[in-house]
Amino acid sequence: MNRNVTMIGVPMDLGQNRRGVDMGPSAIRYAGVLERIRTLGYNIEDKGDIQVKKETLGNENIHNLSNLDPVTETNKSLARTVSSINKEGHFPLILGGDHSIAIGTIAGMSGYFDNLGVIWYDAHGDLNTADTSPSGNIHGMPLAVSLGLGHPTLTTINGDFPKIKPENVIIIGARELDEGEKDYIRQSGMNVYTMHEIDRLGMSEVMHQSINYLKDRCDGVHLSLDLDGLDPHDAPGVGTPVLGGLTYRESHLAMEMLAEAKMVTSAEFVEVNPILDEKNKTAEVAVALMGSLFGEKLK
Ligand SMILES: NC(=[NH2+])NCCC[C@H](N)C(=O)O
Ligand SMILES: [Mn+2]
Ligand SMILES: [Mn+2]
C-alpha cells in the first residue's frame, strides 16, 4: 500500500439526529491512530479537521433532506481536500463524523479513476434518496448520491456525473435495508453480502470473492467503513446500532485480507459517537481495524 498517508477529520453530525458523532475524529485521534500507523512504517501526517459550517444551519428539512446546505458545503470542501491529497500521491484516511461525509470523500477520489471500486462495510445500504428515506437523514443517502441518485445539490458535488458505478460497489454486513433500497439493489444487481450470506460463506470466502471481483474490474478501491457494520456488542458507540452484526474478529480478518490484496487507495471510518460509547471502545476498535488495514501482523 501507499506509504504516504494523509489523515483528515470531518466533525460532521448534521447527516443524522443524534449529537456527539462530531466528536468522532477527536476520539479516534485519542485512541492513538497516528502512532498505530506510524509504527507500521508509514509516513502519516494529520492535516486536522475540515470545518463544518454551521452558519448555514436552519432547522428546516426541505424536500426530506435535513440540513442540506451545511452538509453540502462541508462535502464540497472535503471533496477538494481529498482530491488534493490524492493528487500529491498520498493515501487519504478520513475520520468521521456521520456517514454523509462519504459523499465528499468519494467525489474527491472519483476523478482519478475510470472504475473506482467501493467496499461499503455497513449494517445499512445508505442507498436512500429523499423520495425513499424514512428519516430525511442524509447519512442514509451517501451511496445513492455517489451513484448519481438523489437531489442535484448533492449529486453534482465535484462534477455533474455519477462518481461510481453500481457494478463496482460491494456492500458487506447489510442487515437493515429500507424498501426503496431493496428495490434499487434488485434492479441494479449490486453485489450485497448481507449477514445471511456472510453466515453461510464465512468472512474469509466473502473477502476472497470481493477482492477477486474488484481486482479484475477496478483501478482503485475506496473502503467506507461504518462502525455500525460491527455488532453493537463490539462497537456500541454508534447512532443507529443493529443487532446481529459482524464481529471484531471477522472485521479484523476483512481488513487483513484487504491489506494482503494491496488494493485499497483511500479509506474512511465513520459513525463513531463518543457520547454513546463505552470508555472510547468504538474509537479503539476503529483504530485496531485501521492497524490491520495498514498491514499490522503478529508474525
Ligand atoms: N450511515 C448510517 N448509519 N445510516 C443509517 C441509515 C438508517 C436509515 N436507513 C435511514 O435512511 O434513515
Ligand atoms: Mn450504518
Ligand atoms: Mn452507513
UniProtKB/TrEMBL annotation:
Mn(2+) 2 binds at H124, D126. InterPro entries: Arginase, Ureohydrolase, Ureohydrolase_dom_sf, Ureohydrolase_Mn_BS. One of its GO terms (cellular component) is cytoplasm. It catalyses: L-arginine + H2O = urea + L-ornithine. PROSITE patterns: ARGINASE_1 (PS01053), ARGINASE_2 (PS51409). Keywords: Arginine metabolism, Hydrolase, Manganese, Metal-binding. It holds the Pfam family Arginase. Its cofactor is Mn(2+). It is an enzyme of class 3 (hydrolase). Binds 2 manganese ions per subunit. Belongs to the arginase family. PANTHER family: ARGINASE. NCBIfam families: rocF_arginase. This is Arginase. It comes from Alteribacillus bidgolensis.
